[in-house]
Every structure is written in structure tokens, then in C-alpha cells.
Amino acid sequence: MRNLLLVIGGFFCVAGGLVFLPLPTPFGVPLLLLGAALILAGSAMARRYMKGIRSGNDRLHRWLAAGERYLPRRLRYIFRQTHPR
Q: I want to staple 35 with a disulfide (CB 3.0 to 4.6 A). Which of 6, 9, 10, 42 is the partner?
């Protein structure tokens, strides 16, 4: 039940981030990151999918790896679980 709520909350955050992204307020990107973290925390399939994307796209992997150090510790842990090894 917890995982389902995390994934549903993540989709709502992603939808809200997409709405706020073109607006001049700075809420779009943080909502997108929070939504992605919630989805990755609640779904093992999403983590496997993200690992595949990161392993196939070196530029995206470098960009995400460089930005991870600026994330809060819990979000950083979730995104590090998707590193291609």
C-alpha cells in the first residue's frame, strides 16, 4: 500500500511540475525532481528502467550524477540506486 501511495503521489508531483514548468515561478523543477524520487522510491520496475536509461545515455548519466550532490540526502540515496554499475 505504501509503494502505491508513493507512486501515485509521484505522478501528481510530476503533473504539477509540468504545469508549473513554463510559469515564471520556480516550482516546476523541484516538483519534477520530487515526483521522480517518489516514483523511484515506490517502484522497483521504475528503478530498473531508470538504470537502463542511464546506462544507455552517457550524457544524461553525467548530468544526473553531477546534480546529485546538490540534492538532500534522502533524494540523493534514491537517485544513486539508479546508477548503472
A: 10
Which grid coordinates belong to 47? 528503478
Is the full-model pTM beyond 0.90? Answer: no
> How many domains does one find in the chain?
1
DSSP string, 1-56: -HHHHHHHHHHHHHHHHHHHTTSSSTTHHHHHHHHHHHHHHH-HHHHHHHHHHHHH
Query: Does residue 47 lie in a domain region?
Result: yes
Domain containing residue 65? 2-80
Residue 41: inside a domain: yes
Q: Quick count: other Cβ atoms within 10 Å of Cβ 45?
A: 9
In the numeric block, the cell 537502463 is attached to: 52
- The tens digit of pLDDT for each residue in 36-65 reads 999 999 999 999 999 999 999 999 899 988
Residue 85 within any structural domain of the chain: no
